[in-house]
Batch of 2 targets.
Target 1
Amino acid sequence: MHVLPYLIAAYIFLTGCYGLATSRNLIHAVGCLAVCQSATYVLLLAVGYRDGGTAPVFSDMRPGSRPVVDPVVQALTLTDIVVGATVTALLLALVLQIAKRHGTIDPDELRELRG
Amino acid sequence: MNRLRLVLLTVGGAGLAALLVAACLRLPDFGGRRHPYGDRAVHASLSRHTANTIASVNFDQRAYDTLGEMSILFAAVLGCVVLLRQAGDERRARPEPAEVARPVRRYALLVLPVALLTGLYVIAHGQLSPGGGFQGGVVAATALHLLYLGADYRALERVRPLGVYETTDSLAVAAYLVLGTAGVLAGTAFLANTLLPYGTFNTLSSGGTVPLLNAAIGMEVASAAVVLLAHFLDQAVEIEETTGERTEGAHER
Amino acid sequence: MNGWILAATVELGGAGAAALWGVTTGPPARRVIAQNLTTSAVCPALLLLAQGYGRPSYVDLALLLALLGPVGTLVFARLLSDDLAGDSPSAWALTWAAAALGAAVVVALCVAGDPGRATVKLLVIGALLIGGNLIASRALAGGFRGVAGG
Amino acid sequence: MSDALTVVVLVLVAAAATAAVAQRDPARQALVLSFLGVLLAALFTVLQAPDVGLSQLAVGSALTPLLIMLSVRKVRRRGRSKEGPE
């Protein structure tokens, strides 16, 4: 239990990398990149967790009444999720542009076109 | 070629996996008691009367970091707008009006204001309860697109003057910078939370400049998402290539 | 720790695994139904967790999911309408079962908590969840027949 | 007890991530990705990060699937309009 969340994060990251490397469709590759991104969220939040803790949000509880988890990693993750989505959009825009210019979105066919 | 790539992938993946596992075993235990940065951040947030510590970290203690995130967002949207603009060999085809089943249409029109309101609620209560500009902005932008899902694209285009959203996007970025500079002019530091009184703990106006920066981010994210989706919708629904000479032209470029 | 969290664990484990199995196997029609049921599976679990952790502010998550989950399903119903045209996917027994699960959880939480603003919020979430679930099922079962290019 | 919940959700997330990579058709992958997004929101709630969960819900449940599906539609439409004249 002490390292399980970290190992799961590493597993998700490696799975996403495998998908990226073997993808035959650039839209699918962008989806795999999204999976890689989610691995970083799991890792960061696992680092900040504290047993028996609760969220450091004091709108509905008295400060100091319960132990709280680490807010710094949460702040990092939460901005990253929204920014990650726009970066996904940018990559998808690139894919559409490639489809327009080369007529295919299979990475292998693209390489043959260039060669 | 393909085989070589698979071998490379296996070797690299195995190496990376070994390193990651080694690193995981040396990390502090999951659920451990020691969080020095977290404890300090909570203390700082409480001393500035911000109930939601995460909002305090984002818009006060690490507001400079959020400025960086915001510029990535802005640049990504700018990139999409440039990449997805209508090219010279493309034309716009008006999509036919869609027939949507009546209960679905009614549901969309009913939920649209509710979702918009929820988005605004999430933004406004960012410094108190879970939520904030990043989340609420996305919700509000998604809510607007119920009009496309429940009716058709032309209905959405009528309530979505794109220029206004592009301007709002830039204005929100500018507002964030101006709020930051105001700190310098007041004699402290860029984006320092010293401008306004901290207010009463756990009320809407508490936290100094946190609610203002939060609102600026909310505006920026909402209009950025609307602009992004507008360009993707344009490409998917309206813009068509003029067929004919396209296939030969493709290889020259 | 307490009964609410135990209920959430069982609910999330069972319904989550079922939805994952449904969303990864079978024809497209079955996958979109499973995607729609994800909302009805996870939203009650989020409500139970909010109660179990004793944090009313966590209820916002369930509210957002009840609002946006059906929107996600409408996206697929609309943009996959060509693929779904052959066999109009409908699983009304499952849909009503999911709606009943949501209703049961909301009622249990209303009874457990003190009446007040929180109860109203819970009822709104329940209405959005069940209404959204039914409408999304309707949309999948041919709600976008007339959508051609748009 | 709390540990059991964490383990259940973590295993589900890992399984969903594997499934998302294994689906080679982008439209089907988008379905699994939206499921993964909602499940991640549940995981973040279990890890006591409701703010992050809200962020993930807002992005993962509707925005990302919409972007991917619109891209798929554009690419498919191109394929169709190209077949016409040839």
Target 2
Amino acid sequence: MKNPYLPMSVTISKINFENKAKDLKTFDFTFDNPDDAKDFQFICGQFAMISIDGIGEAPFGIASSPMEKKIIQFTIKRYPQGLLTTSLHNLSVGDKVGLRGPLGNGYPMKKIQGQNILIVGGGFALTTLRSVAQYVLHKDNRSNYGRLTMLAAAREPGEMLYRDDMTEFEKALNTEIIQTIDRPAEDWTHKVGFAAPVLKEVAPSPKDTYALICGPPIMIKTCTDVLLELDFDTDKILNSLEMKMACGIGKCGRCNVGNKYVCKDGPVFSYKELLELTKGCGL
Amino acid sequence: MKKLKMINKKDITKLLDELAKNYRLLAPVEKDGIVNFTEVQNGQDITLDFYNSKEPLKKLFFPQSETLYCYSKEQGRTVPEEQDKRRKIVFGLRPCDAKAAVLLDNVFDGADFKDPYYLEKRENTIICSLACNEPQTSCFCTSLGLGPGDKDGSDIFIVDIGDKYLFEAVTQKGQKLLDEMTGTYEPEDKDIKKAQTLITESENKIKKQIETACLSEKLDELADSPIWDELAEKCIGCGICTYLCPTCHCFAIVDEASDCKGCRVRNWDSCMFGNFTLEASGHNPRPTGKERMRQRIMHKFNYFVKNFDANACVGCGRCFRNCPVHNDLIKVIEKINNAKSEPKK
Amino acid sequence: MSDDKEKTKEEFEPKIIAFLCSWCSYAGADLAGVSRLQYSANIKIVKVPCSGRINPFYILKSLQQGADGVWVSGCHPGDCHYLTGNYFARRRFTILKRLLEYIGIEEGRVHFSWVSAGEGQKFAEVAREVAESIKKLGPAKRLVKK
Amino acid sequence: MSDIQQQIQEHAKKLLSDKTVDLFIGYKDINEPMLTEPAFIRDAKDADQLIWNPFCEHNLAKYLVGRNEKIAIVAKTNDVRSIVVLINEQQVIRENLTIIGVNCDDVIDRKKVEAEMDGKDITSAQIKDDKLIVKAEKISKTLKIKNYLHDSCLDNKRDMSEICDIIIGEKSSCKTEEDKYAKIRELEQKTPEERWEYFKKELSKCIRCYACRNACPLCYCKSCFVDQKFPNWVGQTTDLSDTMCFHIMRALHTAGRCVDCGACVRACPNGIDLRMLTGKIEKDVKELFGAEAGLNPETDNPMTSYKEDDPEDFIK
């Protein structure tokens, strides 16, 4: 019987900083055991539990696209209170960590086929959304999806994630990338303003469009209200939630929203599902 | 292959001595006034005259702290093996604890992920449960669809009919063990009838009831009701109700390290503790006692019902019997059932 | 008896943690070293700003993680660099030492001393005394986490 | 006993109706033998739910920290001393508090009564002046209340009336004569091995439910040292060494603050006598530093003060 608590061993192949404050790093991992790499079939929006033996374990969204076979990427923010994130940030290329996954349901990429996609990402929650963008813009999949609109919001230019990827995405056809920061800053050429007002300005028509939102709770709330005003279908607004997790497989009883577990039945829920669940005040 | 067997009360110690030879026998033992299931080498120092054990059977299959794996530079990650592989017998268990094991199977033997640690111990154990002739005033198992005579979850079901015990094999495992037992004889009809009357008598002795018919829907309506402030006001937020509850299964995973080797350990955790959902960013979705009390009741009587179509409660009464402020679950459920739900804002 | 009982006492090399206040006792240790005074090598020194900085948890954590003995040393009352650090520490150590012995930790496991910066000689003597008493008690069995 | 209950109800009605307090914390009956529960009364008409009998065992000072409304609280002598410690540590604002001291406050120890009924489930318990009539399934016993009181009540006979705003019941004159630390001194005489075995047996019963910590009015830290991961002071497992370290560390936190109210012993589901641990520190603080907790709101904690001539015989 497969032991769901035993992590696979992976090695750090590349680390680069994602923001000026240097508390956000993207780690590239390669699998030590080749058939682990084969079994690790994931879809956009899924996450994995990264663990350092003797320190602990925590869930992180997979930032790389499923089409990328050789490595798997995570963007991790160092929290002063976070024992594991601090230890991860102290690691260097070549160190080994444990990895458990892929976990969670991820975005319903099959259901979204043939539809337009609106991505709204706030701060460093852009990780799994970048995975979606890379997957959709990959040459083998581009034809399955309609127009891609991506709104990336951040507090200031130094905090904007994956800027080189986004310049790459802009070149793709039928794709529009909008970057916005809260307050004006010099040599910032893109938009300025909070996510919700900018979203109201740039949002595509709700017809046949799925909206994928992920970011700090206040941003999710304001942007969802905007989308509801533009009468987006509540079934097509998808949120990726985040809660404290221990087992990641729906056993340890802590990450539930209503009777659903964020780790096993989530982290992606449609707004319609969330309305149903939180009527039972799940949080 | 007889399903029913009798044994005289005076021979029970001899029977247990034999069982202890080739099985690991766990039986109720009293120490400073507290009865708990402990491993015994013979039948001498056990007591079958008790209401219920202090700690539930879950401690056997889902121990309070269990090493998931050890790691070291040389061997990498190794899962510890149980040295003594002999099968275990739990003798004298109460029917509510046996039923609790079936409820826990929903979680640890799930369709999606199976928990190898739990299942290995679960299969390796034979449960011989003893019907309750004397339920406690705080028992309310009859309102959860079970009772002093409920056989669900037991491999052998025992009824104490005065000077003799009636053994009944409920499962294949139980039948195999029953055939191995010596010193048993055939029961007459009057013994079987007497066992039945004793059980119905015992069922009528249970006075406390909770109404669970439409409890799940009622709880959905009371999501944001202020009733939870009132229910949680006196609670001091300790872990007794969840640690001594036979169906509570929440746990935390922690790493224990000393220089370059150590192990990853799974410990019981409680939704009533403050840092159960505290995130590294400092945000806590359940910051006060109110949300935690709501989560505890919701998980047992609403979410578990929606996920597994059963209440995660067996009516054993341990939670309020041991609670320092006697937070009576019977009264809590009563208040919830009678609470009027205001219209959704 | 456990295997290390057969191993005669001489081979037993105790692990002793010494929390030394950086202004006095650490300087005392330096002076002992500079003046070539010999003391047991099993003493592992941890420099702390003041004896008042030592939280009883440090001592308990050391005993739990397998230290065979703990020695805490600071400035003599009156010449603490922070004026009152060692006075508060003194009360804390009094309570801690009596509680540990009450629980059952053997008498000679935890030691406290005042050694000033100029007392290199005293430092070496106390170090020898501490190492001797802990070696006599043998490896720590109680409170150690297996 | 009922006239004390009468006075408590009247005080509650008056205090709540003329808005001197927003919340009245007392005790409520739950018609279970020998049990009461903490009551939080906010409007005057519920005041008649308040009761008083020898089973009002909880230390209600536990509920005071973190509330900034005007509160009236029914307090036994030990509870008053706990409140004094909380005032001393600025956790409770004296002006917001109306302390109703109840003097004849002996509380019955349920575990001692249950031991008399040889394990049978108690169905009813009535008080008849100084006797307690306890009924179980086929047994009925009449017990003298005086012999079944909590040790923490017997050991801490003290008069705290001048701290209280309102006093109910006549002043309890008797002072505890014999040495309250007799059991601890007896354990001190034993050898370190015997003492270790005693604490090993006692603390191996601990299931780390933290009821002792959560019932104690002194344990109000936002994040307890047990929950901290950075550094990880003590393990979460039920390994004996972790449990011992937890209890030693928690006891050290009560040094110079513990009033020996017995709330930890009453809360423990497995009946561990934690007063043998906290009592030792309380004894040492009293003998070495001449200080007792919770008697005077102005004196500060002995562990945050010092004397030039504090004992230092053990320091080389």
